[in-house]
UniProtKB/TrEMBL annotation, chains A, B:
Alphabetized UniProt keyword annotations: FAD, Flavoprotein, NAD, Nucleotide-binding
Highest taxon of the lineage: Bacteria
Family under the similarity heading: Belongs to the class-I pyridine nucleotide-disulfide oxidoreductase family.
Residue ranges annotated for the FAD/NAD(P)-binding domain, each copy included: 5-317
Keyword Transport among record annotations: no
Protein name, per record: NAD(P)/FAD-dependent oxidoreductase
Cofactor: binding comment: Binds 1 FAD per subunit.
Binding site for FAD: 51, 143-145, 311
Required cofactor(s): FAD
Pfam family, one: Pyr_redox_2
Disulphide bonds in the chain: 42-47
GO MF annotations, alphabetized: dihydrolipoyl dehydrogenase (NADH) activity; flavin adenine dinucleotide binding
PANTHER family, per the entry: DIHYDROLIPOYL DEHYDROGENASE, MITOCHONDRIAL, DISULFIDE OXIDOREDUCTASE
Length: 480, 480
């Protein structure tokens, strides 16, 4: 008495919803299984609440950078108002509106915990029932990830925050330690400092945003310090003490120092939500990241039916990249189900070209930071013959200064000398987040340098940094 | 005893400076002649001061759009602070810093009024001297334009503002009439309203920004009204009265209505600065716009030596487009001077492809507006088989709402159905100005729709409007 669908999607976050939508658009019957909230981590404890919290902080910071505007910003940010807007954007952690969207797509929504039970078979359990689902064509795993909290002495009693409490709290801790130098760490340090916490950022690495071009982290570091955040790099937390699980937390560092805070946030990486989804029944290791090919099909499983999208495939733990994979996988599954050959052209809808070529990432910090494609180090490592050019945005872009007096920012372009296209572009500075897509179009579209000269940036926008990058490339020495 | 140069540039605004720089970079000797301030209208009475004035107004307006940030903006904009930043960016109308840049390029700077005196010959006059200049290869006219003030009864005595007073005034008129619905009109209405004037915008046309897609003007109109600007469309000013040239101005409209204001700004078009540059000595009509080919060489002159860039060629009265033409003309003149064939490939450095294909324009209003390439009407008129898709940004782009609560904005993409590239893109809404370059790269780079699907916009940026545009195109009906 199993229910049979063409496609079954495990995990109802943005990735799963997009995958379900695209598969359904291919004329396939689809069930989406979610064990918690439809909309997932991103909608309720990720980008949505974090950007809701960050924008008021950044809007005020931006106005304060402008002479004549600064004088208007004499009040304080209203934390209650910020929490209210956050609550509105997460619809008070009620997933009914998102669930309605899914139902409106013509996709069946199944609530419960799904586990694989051999090829194309799933068992969904809730407290009340056990349901068998069979997939004719494909099962798509997009169960996401969970914050990884290090196993430190005292950690349980310390009740540390992860991304969940950092985005759903409506009280501002007087003193907050943020552990981790990646995107979540620097963004949440920015948000909670802006909302009134005294924030200490504790980074294991020497630089912040360690996966990016190093100047991004340097600028963000300086911005945090200037705002009043204490930033400690190359330190490890070795022990926590919070007797009885309430009151202040004593944080011990590997330097022997101690720090007293009211809450501690761990933003120290993610674990895939694959430990309890029956991977062992199809020959894969429970708890592992799932390796996929460029159609997003999982490797190591017979029969071309298992796909893994979003965080679980570990290619890029970013909602937008997971949604991109969902579009690709939906089209691929549709083609295979309909007996059509896959189009192997890298610009076809069947190849996740951008997974390799052009992953974009934006950090809503002060200053903002954004990057797409390969860093100069990655490009060299991959064997490209590259030339890298840098531009000081404050020094050379008038529009940057009109935007923020005393603008400081930097841009970098990594050029493939052989085919004269861009492998990567990074920006840091106020207002750069919405500039990123110009770089993404150039990198993903493989627009040659010669054509980019005909893409005229408006005077006096910050985007004129593109002229400076092109000039620096034209006038610089070719790569050795 | 004439001085001889390879290239002589008439007009030391940004366009002339860029042309001189590029010609010099081609190994040519260059003189730049300027009769007023080196840096030109743009630097001293155009984009530079106007954007210096506008940014504080927009930064405060943006913070007020965000719950929790709004509460911090309890003061007023400090007009004195705004004027001080403007004065700093125009270096107090002292052109020495810009002149130093020109000299640092290795370009000779000649001050005075230059007039053509037959082919390749110029006479420069100042109060003290008369100097003859001969050009071996090229003369480049980039003398710009001047505000055209209509010849109305009473206009002289009314001492109306043009872009000059509108950008260099350090007093805020209590009541200001702005005549004109183009970029200068809507931007200056925004700036002076923000600085404290009671502004009435008087437009001859039915809609604002009449050369753009109509929805841009509709949104800007609504924004101005919501801010408190009175907007009157389809009205003409017929008479001004300001007895003795001081005190309030009585403005009579063609409706018979009268309006009393303290200053009136005419932003009603531009006249080319070509009336007194000796065009008659080379067979061209003084005071006319100069027609050019796609290398920016003036038509109607024998011998391939006269170029016209920037406002005077009437292709686009925009600093950035003039600078683009300067890059093209510099390379063209260098090639011709060195006896090299011109490269006719549209992506070469010798063809001003973007003049026809991809002129970008940004309006620093509230909401911001920006556009590149052809409008849907222009595209159809030119015979393209087009399909136009629209997206309501407030309704469909989460990142837009995180940016500004209750976001209203719209985007339009005009697609060439035959080659599946973009002919034009327009945006209106808070924060769209820096998004424009993503469209410019797509339009100027002729990136096909299929590739744009691999350019992933970050969640949750406003740039995710690109996904909505692509989806709308994918899901819509093909053009009849």
């Amino acid at each position: 008495m199993a229910r049979v669908y063409d496609v079954i999607v495990l995990g109802g976050g943005p990735v799963g919803i997009n995958a379900a939508d695209r598969a359904h658009a291919e004329g396939l019957s689809v069930a989406l299984v979610e064990r918690e909230l439809v909309g997932g981590e991103c909608n309720f404890w990720g980008c949505v609440p974090s950007k809701s919290l960050l924008r008021p902080v950044l809007a005020v910071a931006e106005a304060r950078k402008v002479d004549g505007a600064r004088e208007a910003v004499v009040g304080a940010i209203d934390a209650k108002g910020v929490f209210a807007r956050r609550d509105r954007y997460v619809t008070n952690w009620d997933d009914a509106p998102v669930a309605d969207v899914v139902l409106g797509m013509g996709v069946d929504l199944v609530r419960g915990h799904a586990r694989l039970d051999g090829a194309r078979r799933l068992v969904v359990t809730t407290a009340e029932r056990r349901l068998e689902l069979h997939a004719r064509h494909a099962v798509i795993v997009c169960t996401g990830s969970t914050a990884a909290v290090p196993d430190l002495p005292g950690v349980a009693e310390a009740k540390p925050w992860t991304n969940r409490r950092a985005t759903d709290s409506s009280t501002v801790p007087a003193r907050l330690a943020v552990v981790g130098a990646g995107g979540v760490g620097v963004e949440m340090a920015t948000a909670w400092h802006g909302l009134g916490s005294r924030v200490t950022l504790l980074a294991r690495t020497a630089g912040l945003l360690p996966r990016m071009e190093s100047f991004l982290g340097e600028h963000v570091h300086r911005g945090l310090v200037e705002a009043g955040v204490e930033v400690r790099t190359e330190v490890l937390v070795t022990e926590l003490q919070r007797p009885g699980g309430t009151g202040p937390i004593q944080v011990t560092l590997d330097t022997g120092e101690r720090l007293e805070v009211d809450e501690i946030l761990f933003a120290t990486g993610r674990t895939p939500n694959t430990a309890d989804i029956g991977l062992e029944t199809v020959g894969l290791a429970p708890g592992s990241w799932l390796d996929v090919d460029d159609t997003c099909m999982a490797r190591g499983v017979e029969g071309d039916w298992l796909y893994a999208l979003g965080d679980v495939n570990h290619q890029a733990l970013l909602t937008h990249q997971g949604k991109y994979q969902a579009r690709i996988a939906g089209a691929v599954i549709g083609a295979r189900a309909n007996g059509l050959a896959l189009d192997s052209d890298p610009w076809s809808a069947h190849v996740a070209t951008a997974n390799d070529l052009a992953i974009p990432q934006a950090f809503f910090t002060d200053p903002e930071a954004a990057s797409v494609g390969l860093t100069s180090a990655q490009a060299t490592q991959r064997g490209h013959r590259v030339r890298t050019v840098d531009v000081d945005m404050g020094q050379s872009v008038p529009g940057a200064n009109f935007y923020a007096d005393g603008y400081t920012g930097q841009a970098r372009m990594v050029v493939d000398e052989d085919d004269q296209t861009l492998l990567g572009v990074s920006f840091v500075g106020p207002g750069v987040v919405e500039m990123l897509h110009s770089a993404t179009v150039a990198v993903a579209g493989r627009v040659p340098i010669a054509r980019l000269w005909h893409a005229v940036p408006c005077f006096p926008t910050i985007s004129e940094v593109w002229l400076r990058l092109l000039e620096a490339y034209r006038d610089g020495a070719p790569a050795g």
